[in-house]
Amino acid sequence: MEKKHGNYGKRMKKSANWKGGIKIREGWRYIYVGNGKYVEEHRLVWLKEYGDIPKGYIIHHINGIRDDNRIENLQMMTKSEHSKLHSKERDLAMEKNPNWRGGKSKPNRCSECGVEVDYRSNICRSCSMKRVRKNKFWKTRGLP
Q: What is the CATH number of the domain that holds 93?
């Protein structure tokens, strides 16, 4: 019985969709390393230049651009240092814009009745349903 994924890399390379082993997701570049595995490119750059990354450490992009993987833009730090760094950035962003989505924002108000709504919306559910009922499309189908 043959292995399920034994020929995986060879099949991928023959595919018309083969992009040279690079995937980009949410700004992160991933490099195909074999056996069906992808590794973040910035980690590979760091490994090539400095060697192993100790457990509990991460590689941070100094300028914040996820696909800028030049060695001078990479910095190794602990997970707690990284969290502190980004929490300071979030605090600064919230000072500049109190309605910043990543932080606690002021509650939105419904544009029609003024009731408090979720930060992603500008109209409450009851006003939204009133709009739907008024819509000619729904009236022709027997809704009140």
A: 3.90.75.20
Q: Are 86 and 80 in contact (CB under 8 A)?
A: no
Provide φ and ψ at 126, rounded to 5°.
-65, -40
The secondary structure of 48-114 as a DSSP string is HHH----TTEEEEETTS-TT---GGGEEEEEHHHHHHHHHHHHHHHHHH-TT-TTS--PPEE-TTT-
Domain that holds residue 73: 8-106
The answer to whether residue 94 is domain-embedded is: yes
Whether residue 118 is predicted with pLDDT greater than 50 in this model: the reply is yes
**Structural domain count, the chain:** 2
pTM of this prediction exceeds 0.90: no
Residue from 115, 122, 118 nearest 107 by CA:
118
pLDDT (tens digit per residue) in 7-16: 444 555 556 5
- Express the helix, strand and coil content of the chain in percent, nearest 5 each: 35, 20, 45
